[in-house]
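Recall from the previous lesson that a structure prediction takes nothing but the amino acid sequence as input. Here we apply that procedure to FAD-binding PCMH-type domain-containing protein from Arabis alpina. The sequence below is the only information supplied.
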Amino acid sequence: MKLQSFFTSILLIFFSLLSTPKPVSANHSGFLQCLSLRLNDTNIIPKVIHTPNDTYFSSILSSSIQNQRFSSPNTPKPVLILTPVQPSDVQSAVKCARRFDIHLRTRSGGHDYEGLSYVTHNKPYVILDLRNLRSITFDNDNRSVWVQTGATIGELYHDIGLKNKTLAFPAGVCPTVGVGGHFSGGGYGTLLRKRGLASDHVTDARVVDARGRFLERKDMGEEFFWAIRGGGGASFCVVVSWKIRLVDVPSKVTIFNVTRFSEQSSLKIIDRWQYVSDKVDDDLFVRVMLQRSDKNMVRASFPGLYLGPVKILLELVNREFPELGLVKEDCKEMSWIESVVWFAELGDDETLIDVLKERTQASLSFKAKSDFVQEPMPVMAISKIWRRLEEEEAELAQVIFTPFGGKMNEISENFTPFPHRKGNIYEIQYLNYWRGEEKEKYMRWVERVYDEMSEFVAKSPRGAYINLRDLDLGMYGGVKKSKYEEGKIWGVKYFKNNFERLVRVKTSVDPFDFFCDEQSIPTFRSLDVI
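The prediction returns the following tokens.
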């Protein structure tokens, strides 16, 4: 009876797929049968396999779309969504997908800036959504954590904060970002000057490779392990979980924010910031944020974190950066985990720590670009940005300057694939958000600001950050070149000299390019003309 029920479930899913409104190839039918047989449990199948006819298909698809630019009715939709409940489900998905030539997109938190973790315009595809693989396991003796790829950095921060007030992890400020994409692209936040990138503190990983094998660091080898810690893991495998090393923080840190509305006073502070922000004590992190205020005026904000008490912070800033005008009233002492909540703009009370676990969906569309700056910009260049922010289409725009220096100067640019370290004084992110379907004028705004800054930023190549993905840099199929030649166009901007090493790893571990997207790492064998 149990066997009959099992095959009945397979048939129901099979016919459900065949009855979808869009045509489905025979390959997808074979893939579905293969996967259903491999899962081999009637209770698991409906938890893992979701067809367009399923009640929850649309809600699962939309729940992790963090850029509403890719949620319109015209956006291509997947043939299936898979939500594995155990690592072996991922192996089954990869083995069946490879057998039946099915294209997979792997999604963790859904924050890919160009939506590549859940959208492709080139072919039918299946989303491998890792939302159910989100366990976080502590090894207190070794101050390390195994965190599954489907967890968010907010969930990770939350659990660290509950365990220990003097341990932390150097990742980003947005709590809904999935650890999978964040770690595999590098990952930076308020601790980068003191501790470097998130990927610098990954000590092991568990992955499913293109052959469907489950591997750890000792099995995959050091080159494979190197590639997934900053080279974009989705080009090489499905990372199921990461082992990370925690770092020390004081029991009390200090957060602060200084805001200015006058262009003249703001530019004076920013000009000085460019000369000191990467050179001051590594315990100090001060960001610059330019955006419109509630009164529709451009404002400059200088939020910061100091790994120590207010008294020492004020002495340091008054000595090294008096132009900031920091006073005690701008500051507040708190625990590190409270500072995480504050930087996420969720409050500044430790009782709010549970909000870090919430998986909210973004309501706006956006476009972003990035740059690295190696010499201070003239005030005139910052003034250009200020003027652009006064324009009508920049109502929700932001330009963010993130300081480097400190630990970023000490780690070699080939320690991980992320190469933008020593020599860069800060990174810029240009962002514009909007509501509704209209997008052209908002995207053009980002392009104009980016173009105007070209003479003031890093060159040869003009760098970009893979975690702030930008398809304007190029994508496969755009020109009559080999895939390798096309990939190199944007690959050297993301990875500089590390690009060739990443290609060697890709050629070794995924020679048939099973894991691919519009900007994935190519193989040396990708010599066919597109």
